[in-house]
Each structure stands twice: as structure tokens, then as C-alpha cells.
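Structure in, sequence out. Go:
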């Protein structure tokens, strides 16, 4: 099965449009029916292109057949400009499997390898992917933080602008994820005064004019969601996300894809905790899962409008 059979597109045109228009395509992670439909509902309501991101662990959780079944049942068509993206593929085999399954975009994350090995693996993936008209993202620099078993890092290192031209030319990738101070998970900054390294971003954008750049670990971490979680039995403290103003600034500097996962997790958890606490006799999952889906849809809508700037860009 090819991705076009499911009404999907690759990211080539949506990235070109985003760079020209000075906005970013949202890449929202999903892992079940509720998260998938919440993202698609928001994209349709906002008339926005969207990237549906699936990590290796999320794919394992859902299973190949279930994922493809949900995608076929979502009634997507190419006019919607929806891409299905493998997030943080850790090997050539993982990317190959996703492409053969029907993904329209893959990320090969070899950023923890030595530079030359990163080039070799990224080029291998790009060569295979392009035979299937699939977009490829790679990464330079590393992000700290934890999201799941295949998206984590104990240390971070900023992208070296001096490496980007050689890397992109040698690998033939379609987009590049860079490290400028974001991180995975809900604990992205030690203080509210920390700013992204816009000097690095500006240098990279100057060296790669018009080339699509990507921010990972860029969730906003709305504190109202953390407050709700804690109010209804959760224990989260010290959470900080990336400031909305900084993210919007990045979209004007060739950042044309921003990854969001933690915000949806927080919204899902906050809604379920609140619903079960307020309705302790309820044991119908459809009730609290629907609350979670509605909350996630609103989060996606808010971020499409306030951060990505991709509303009405179809």
C-alpha cells in the first residue's frame, strides 16, 4: 500500500508553502483513535495542513494493522494536506518498514552517532525513501529530556552551523531538525528567562536559504493543564515549556515544522482525571475519553492559530 492510497501527501509542498508564508506545519503525535481524531478534527476546523507523527514505540503500541486501519477509516484526501510521519526512526530498518507500511515521511535520527556515521545512515535512508516519493528528515545536534523509550537523551548539544551545508548536501535529505535549546518532555527550561539560541538558528538559515528546518521538543506546556492534573490527584512540579512568542519568532526563520507531543499528553490526562473525579460513579470509557478528545482538539486549534500560524493555509 502506498500513502496516496490513504489520501496522504509527503511534506515537500507543504514545507515550501510554509517557508514562503512564514508559518510552521504542526506535527502532532498520536497513539490511539482519540488522539488521531482530535488532531484531524482540529486541522479541519482550522483549515490547516498537518503532520500526523508516530514514534516507533507508538507504532509498536498500536500495531501495524490497527494504525493503517485507523488511517483508512479517517477518510483523508490529498486536499486536506495530511502527512503520516515516522518520528525519531532509530535505524534504516525502522524507516524502511514505515515506508513500506504507507508512511509519507520519515525521520532518521542518527544524531547521537559521529558526524560521518550520521551522514552515512541519513543518506542511506534518503536514497531508499526517495524511490518511493517519501520525504526524509534528519537531525544535527541532540536534545535532552524524555518522552518515551525511543525518544530520550541525558545530555544536549547545540547544532553546529558549520556542519549543516556539508550534511544536507551529502545526505540529500528534505528537512533538518536542529538543536537550539528545546528539549523533550514537560521539563524544557530551568527558568522562565531562558531563550532559544536564535543566533544559531539565524546562522543555519543563512547557510541553508529556503531549506526546511524543524524544531523538536517544542511543546508549550500550558500551565492550566498542569494545574488541573495536580488539582485532581496528579503530582507534577517544575514544568516549563517553550514560550509562544519564541516559537512564533522561529517560524519566521525557516522553521517550517514544529513537533508537539507533551501538550496533548497533558490535555488527555487532565481531562480524564477531571472527568473521573467529578463523576466518580462513571465507568463508561466513552464519556471520559470523549472529554479527552475534545480537550486535545482545542489544544491543537490553539497551537495552530497562536504558534504555528497555519490556520487557513490549505
Amino acid at each position: 500500500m502506498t500513502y496516496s492510497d490513504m489520501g496522504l501527501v509527503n511534506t515537500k509542498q507543504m514545507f515550501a508553502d510554509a517557508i514562503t508564508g512564514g508559518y510552521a506545519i504542526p506535527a502532532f503525535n498520536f497513539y490511539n483513535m482519540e488522539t488521531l481524531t482530535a488532531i484531524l478534527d482540529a486541522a479541519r476546523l482550522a483549515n490547516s495542513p498537518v503532520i500526523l507523527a508516530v514514534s516507533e514505540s507508538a507504532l509498536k503500541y498500536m500495531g501495524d494493522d490497527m494504525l493503517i486501519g485507523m488511517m483508512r477509516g479517517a477518510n483523508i484526501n490529498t486536499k486536506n494536506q495530511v502527512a503520516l510521519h515516522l518520528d525519531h526512526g532509530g535505524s534504516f530498518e525502522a524507516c524502511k518498514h514505515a515506508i513500506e507500511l504507507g508512511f509519507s515521511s520519515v525521520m532518521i535520527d542518527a544524531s547521537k552517532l559521529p558526524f560521518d556515521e550520521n551522514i552515512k545512515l541519513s543518506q542511506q535512508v534518503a536514497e531508499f525513501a526517495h524511490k518511493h516519493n517519501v520525504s526524509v528528515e534528519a537531525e544535527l545536534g541532540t536534545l535532552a529530556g524524555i518522552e518515551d523509550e525511543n525518544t530520550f537523551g541525558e545530555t544536549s548539544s547545540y547544532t553546529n552551523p558549520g556542519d549543516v551545508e556539508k550534511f544536507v548536501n551529502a545526505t540529500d535529505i528534505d528537512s533538518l531538525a536542529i538543536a537550539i535549546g528545546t528539549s523533550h518532555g514537560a521539563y524544557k527550561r530551568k527558568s522562565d528567562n531562558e531563550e532559544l539560541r536564535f543566533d544559531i538558528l539565524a546562522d543555519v538559515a543563512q547557510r541553508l536559504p529556503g531549506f526546511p528546518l524543524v524544531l523538536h521538543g517544542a511543546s508549550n506546556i500550558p500551565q492550566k493543564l498542569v494545574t488541573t492534573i495536580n488539582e485532581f490527584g496528579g503530582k507534577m512540579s517544575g514544568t516549563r515549556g517553550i514560550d509562544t512568542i519564541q516559537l512564533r519568532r522561529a517560524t519566521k526563520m525557516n522553521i517550517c515544522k514544529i513537533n508537539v507531543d507533551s501538550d496533548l499528553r497533558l490535555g488527555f490526562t487532565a481531562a480524564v482525571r477531571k472527568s473521573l473525579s467529578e463523576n466518580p460513579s462513571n465507568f463508561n470509557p466513552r464519556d471520559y475519553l470523549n472529554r479527552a478528545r475534545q480537550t486535545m482538539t482545542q489544544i491543537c486549534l490553539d497551537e495552530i492559530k497562536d504558534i504555528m500560524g497555519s490556520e487557513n493555509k490549505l
